[in-house]
Write a structure and sequence with these properties.
Order of helices and strands: EEEHEHEHEHHEHEHEH
Shape: globular
Radius of gyration: 18 Å
Structural class: alpha/beta
Largest sheet: 7 strands, parallel
Distance between the termini: 8 Å
Number of strands: 9
CATH superfamily: Aldolase class I
CATH class: Alpha Beta
Helix content: 25-40%
Strand order of the largest sheet: 3-4-5-6-7-8-9
Strand content: 15-25%
Number of helices: 8
CATH architecture: Alpha-Beta Barrel
């Protein structure tokens, strides 16, 4: 089954094998695609991978050396060179992960979602929208929003989000920014473009998502994302060594009617997952 063709949301994959995002630091210091980076992904595609989701690509101009960027049109030609190279491999598909992070200082300052004004949130949504438009122009087959690993969207989703307005507190409020990014992106790219979200299974901090209340929230989030027709859910972060976290991954498969990518389960557990 692992090597059989698979189709969802209009995208046909030659197998069920997915290469998930890992930052390579092969971009230039200011975020442009390099020949070495293209070679990396064409080699992965040439090895038989059905679907490559490339490393986190930054949607803002904030300093982040050697990370790929997409906050301006100047980055689109290089990304298009990348997709064209991968698409030369028969049957290979290539998606992109879009990331946004808050300000952080070497002196210890770390910006929080509670510090953001409504205008800042509107700008985050606009940054993701403009990045998505460039993604389509560059020839990618899918988008995944990075809402885990302390990224901005992850901090909104977390139980540690203590905002007191419509972007904090209840699950509905904590999900709002992801919902709004999805809605404007879907309107811009149409129903045929594959859109997904990557979420934490564990915040790895006390009071975060690895707490009993969050499992109920996670279930409800899946139901809401289903109603929006989000095409993909990925749950990479989390301790999969316990029966509780394994059951959480199985539960996502039952609740989310689109594909779910679960990492760290191991071959024995993966054989029991419906593909």
């Amino acid at each position: 089954m692992l090597f059989e063709p698979f189709e969802f949301s209009g995208m046909r994959l030659k197998n069920h094998v997915v290469s998930v995002p890992v930052v390579s630091n092969l971009a230039t210091e200011d975020g442009f695609v390099t020949d070495n980076l293209i070679d990396r992904y064409t080699r992965i595609a040439g090895g038989g991978i059905g679907w490559i989701i490339i490393e986190d690509v930054v949607v803002i101009s904030r300093k982040s050396p050697y990370n790929l960027r997409i906050w301006d049109d100047q980055f689109t030609p290089g990304l298009k060179r990348l997709t064209e190279a991968v698409h030369k491999v028969p049957g290979a598909k290539i998606g992109i992960q879009l990331g946004h992070f808050l300000k952080i200082s070497m002196k210890g300052y770390r910006q929080k979602v509670e510090d953001l004004a409504k205008e800042d949130i509107n700008q985050i949504i606009e940054d993701h929208l403009q990045a998505a438009i460039r993604v389509e122009k560059a020839g990618f087959d899918s988008i995944e929003w990075d809402a885990e690993s302390c990224m901005t969207l992850s901090q909104f989703l977390s139980l540690l989000n203590k905002r007191t307005d419509e972007y904090g507190g209840s699950l509905e409020n904590r999900l709002r920014i992801v919902m709004e990014i999805y809605e404007v992106t879907r309107k811009a790219l149409g129903k045929g473009f594959v859109l997904g979200v990557r979420i934490n299974g564990d915040d790895l901090v006390m009071g975060g998502e690895y707490t009993p209340p969050f499992y109920g929230d996670l279930n409800e989030a899946c139901c809401r994302w289903n109603r929006l027709s989000i095409n993909l859910l990925r749950r990479p972060m989390g301790r999969c060594t316990t029966s509780k976290t394994r059951r959480t991954s199985f539960g996502l498969y039952r609740l989310f009617r689109a594909p779910v990518l679960a990492q760290g389960l191991g071959p024995r557990w993966c054989k029991r997952l419906p593909c």
